[in-house]
């Protein structure tokens, strides 16, 4: 399975997934840390992919949704955005509503989605 296929599978099989540098408990960059903290603050489980652990995903993810940076947050198969957009949505209360709605329509285990 190609990296793009693995990315597509992670996006489509998880209601909420973040592609980040590191993990939510051990983030490897400030942007990934802040975005994953916003998702954790929503109170729902979410999947993650550590792009540093998979060089092919790290290389191919920017082409997947035409978004050049990390982290990337997907809810219900749609790219929400990176750190700034995720934090802005959280501050407005939009992220919490989107995450809760996604989790109500799907049930997914927490953990590494790759």
Automatic annotation (TrEMBL):
Domain Glutaredoxin per the UniProt entry, residue ranges: 16-80
UniProt GO molecular function: 2 iron, 2 sulfur cluster binding; disulfide oxidoreductase activity; metal ion binding
This protein's record includes keyword Iron: yes
Pfam families: Glutaredoxin (PF00462)
PROSITE patterns linked: GLUTAREDOXIN_2
Cited InterPro entries: Glutaredoxin (IPR002109), GRX_PICOT-like (IPR033658), Monothiol_GRX (IPR014434), Monothiol_GRX-rel (IPR004480), Thioredoxin-like_sf (IPR036249)
Domain of life: Bacteria
Chain sites annotated for binding [2Fe-2S] cluster: 29
Keywords carried by this UniProt record: 2Fe-2S, Iron, Iron-sulfur, Metal-binding, Redox-active center
UniProt xrefs under NCBIfam families: Grx4 family monothiol glutaredoxin
Family listed: Belongs to the glutaredoxin family. Monothiol subfamily.
Protein name: Glutaredoxin
Protein species of origin: Thiothrix lacustris
């Amino acid at each position: 399975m190609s990296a793009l296929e693995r990315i597509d599978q992670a996006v489509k099989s998880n209601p909420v997934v973040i592609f980040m540098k590191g993990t939510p408990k051990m983030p490897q960059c400030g942007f990934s840390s802040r975005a994953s903290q916003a998702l954790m603050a929503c109170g729902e489980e979410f999947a993650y992919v550590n792009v540093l652990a998979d060089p092919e995903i790290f290389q191919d993810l920017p082409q997947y949704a035409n978004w050049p940076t990390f982290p990337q947050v997907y809810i219900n198969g749609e790219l929400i955005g990176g750190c700034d957009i995720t934090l802005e949505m959280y501050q407005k209360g939009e992220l919490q509503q989107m995450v809760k709605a996604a989790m109500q329509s799907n049930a997914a285990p927490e953990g590494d989605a790759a």
